[in-house]
Amino acid sequence: MRSVVAAVMAVGLVSGGAAPAFAAPPPLARAASGWEVHYDDQRCIATRRYAVGARALTFGIEPDSDGRGANFIFRPDRLSPNAETGSRPATLAIDGRKVSGRVIMWPDTQNGVLIQTGYGLGDKDPPLALEAAQQVSLQTLALNVTVPLGPIAKVMPLLADCTAGLLESWGFSRADQARMATWPKGAIGRIFQSDDYPSRSLRLGAQGQVSVRYSVGADGKASNCVVRFPSGDPALDKATCDVINQRARLSPALDRDGKPMPAVTTAVIRWVMPGFSDPSNGPIR
Fold it and tell me: Structurally, what CATH architecture does the domain formed by 30-152 represent?
């Protein structure tokens, strides 16, 4: 389960398909700035500017506070001819380890397109220490690039403190955060079913991902779901919180004495139309 800026890749509505194959490895970008940490009432994110040949690229990281996942954004300065918006196949790798097979491409008024992806590790997945990572690679038809992370280890503590403050603003005090030993656990993506896809969204061919925050009680019941970042389709946004509020039952957070306690967490729910696959879906916490 994810904490404040987590990316739980979910909604396993379809199966099959694969990311496109690429003959050449993604070219290495050159860092054009240092890391900057930004925050508001919904987000903590670190960004860095890069040069990819003659193109400029902004790369952003929203890590989980427990180090088990992250949300990434790629914002190139020019729109590729192949940059069709919507859910698209991709290969996302961290130090050569593939962690996702899908991206969401959004229209962006300033830079043409914003590419969003991420990963979330399950309890049985090998650990991945983002603060020790050297590079992140993305291969899509619209963007093929490897970004060196440089001094990311110095940025992670700043993001962790920002995350703690954001959780506090949502009603999860720093004292409660300090006494929590484990986050809520449960495959929240598996509670979504194909019948949950709103009929109007299906007719319109609407896809996207919805970032939400919600409470998990000491009994494991989810409630108070709030959309942090919408998908662009109000029906998908509403369906996301409706399903979580009505059906989500998780193993609650545990304090340092092993006793259940309430917590606040987040998820990113990815809606994919039938006929499209999302290889990043799978066992999640």
Answer: Sandwich (2.60)
- Which residue ranges does the chain devote to CATH 3.30.2420.10? 156-271
State the average pLDDT over residues 77-85.
68
Domain with CATH 2.60.40 in the chain: 30-152
Domain 156-271 is of which CATH architecture?
2-Layer Sandwich (3.30)
Mean pLDDT to the nearest integer, 98-109: 79
For the chain, the DSSP string reads: -B-TT----B--------PPP-SSPPPBPEE-S--EEEE-SS-EEEEEEEEETTEEEEEEEEE-TTSSEEEEEEEESS--TT--SEEEEEEEEETTEEEEEEEEEEEETTTEEEEEEEEE--TTSPP--GGG--EEEEE-SS-EEEEE--SHHHHHHHHHHHHHHHHHHTT--HHHHHHEEE--B--GGGG--GGGS-HHHHHHT--EEEEEEEEE-TTSBEEEEEEEE--S-HHHHHHHHHHHHHH-B-BPEEETTS-EE-EEEEEEEEE--TT---TT-S---
What is the predicted pLDDT for the residue at 104?
Answer: 79
**Model pTM above 0.85:** no
Higher pLDDT, 19 or 56: 56
pLDDT in tens, 206-223: 888 888 999 999 999 999
Residue 22 pLDDT: 58
Q: How far apart are CA 5 and CA 265, in angstroms?
A: 9
133, 119 contact by CB (below 8 A):
no
Task: Report which of residues 185 and 123 the model is more confident about.
Answer: 185
